[in-house]
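Q: Here's a chain of 386 amino acids. Please give me its 3D structure as C-alpha cells.
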Amino acid sequence: MGGTAVVVGGGIGGLAAAIGLRRIGWEVRVVERAPVLQDAGAGISLAANGLRALDELGVGEAVRSAARGQYSGGTRTPAGGWLTRMDGALLEEAVGTPIVGIPRATLHRLLREALPPDALPIGFDAGSVRQTAPGTVRVEDGRGEALEADLVVAADGIGSRIRSGLFPAHPGPVHSGSTVLRALTEETVDLRTDFELTWGRGAEFGHIAFRDGRAEWHAVLSLPAGTRFPDPLAELRRRFHDWHDPIPALLDATRPDAVLHHDIGELRTPLPSYAVGRIALLGDAAHAMTPHLGQGACQALEDAVTLAAALATAPTTDVALARYDAERRPRSQAVARAARQAGRMGQQLSHPVAVTLRNTAMRLTPSRAATRMILRHHAWTPPRLR
C-alpha cells in the first residue's frame, strides 16, 4: 500500500516519520513554518529503543558514528557523593547498545540528509488541516497555498495547532512546575564521566559528554512558568557555585548568549486517540512528556517506525491508523506517566526528610535492580520496515 503524505513539523519526530514513510514507498513532503531549517538545540541522549528505531529507518549507523556511548557516570548529590553509578557495559549487555549522547543539531542534520531536498518545503505555515473528501486531507497555510494528501502526520510539537483543532475540548499542555536552562559548551571540558545527574532540593544539574570533547549541560529548577533572569548564566553560577566539579567548569566553558531557557510543559491529560480520520498525531503533539526519563525523542522515533510499519502491512490506511493508535497510545502514555513520577521523586523533590529517604533508598538499590528498572522503557523491539 502506497500513498501521499504531508508531515507537518520538521523536528526529530517529523523527519523520522518522513524517512519511514519514504522507505515503504510513500511520497512525502515535510512542511515547516520556519523560513530556514536550522541545526539548533543543545544535546540529547538516545537509549536503545530510540537507536533501534533509527536502525530501522536506515540512519542508526550514522548516528552511532557521530555519538558518544554513555558507559560511566550516574547520579550524585551536590556535595559530589554518588547515589547510583551507571554501568553502561551492563546495560549494553542487556539490550545490545549503550545509551549515547549526541548534539541535537547533529541528529537533526543526519535525519534531514536522509531525505531529498525537495521533500522539505520551508516557510509553509500549516494553519488549517481538514478532510475534504473520503481519503483526502487538505493542508493550507495562511497565504492561500495548499497541499492535498492521503495522510497528514501532525508532528508540530507540544503546542500543536492540529491537535487543538481535532480535540477542541482537550485542555492542552500544562506547566510541569519546572523550567530548564541548557547549553553546549564552547570549549572542550575535562570530564571524567560520560553522563551525570546531580539532584539538589528542587534543582537538578546534568551533563552529556560528546565525541568532540564538548558537552551539553542542563539545569532544571522548580519555578513558576514565565520566570526569566536578566543574566541566566550569572544566575546559574550563583545557584550552583558550591556544587561539585565539573559543574562550575561547565558553566565557565559556556558563552552567555548560548544559554537556552524553556519552561517544561506536558500533556498531563492523555489524548483519547492518536488518529482522527486520515490525520495521525506523533511525538510531542501526541504525548509531550517531561524530560526526566530522557524518553521524549525516543518515543517520537518509536511513533515514526510504528506508523510506517502499520501503513506498510495493513490492508487500508484507516486500518493502519487504528493499529498505530492501538500500539502507540498505551506505551507512550505509560512512559509519560513514569517520566512525571521520576521528576516528582527526583528533581522536584524538595522536603529535606523526603530527599534523605530517597537518597538512602537509591544508595541501597543494587546496580542490577536499577538496570532492570531502566530496561522497562529501553527494551523495545521495532517492527520491521523491510
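Q: Can you summarize the key feature?
A: Residues 317-345 form the longest helix (29 residues).
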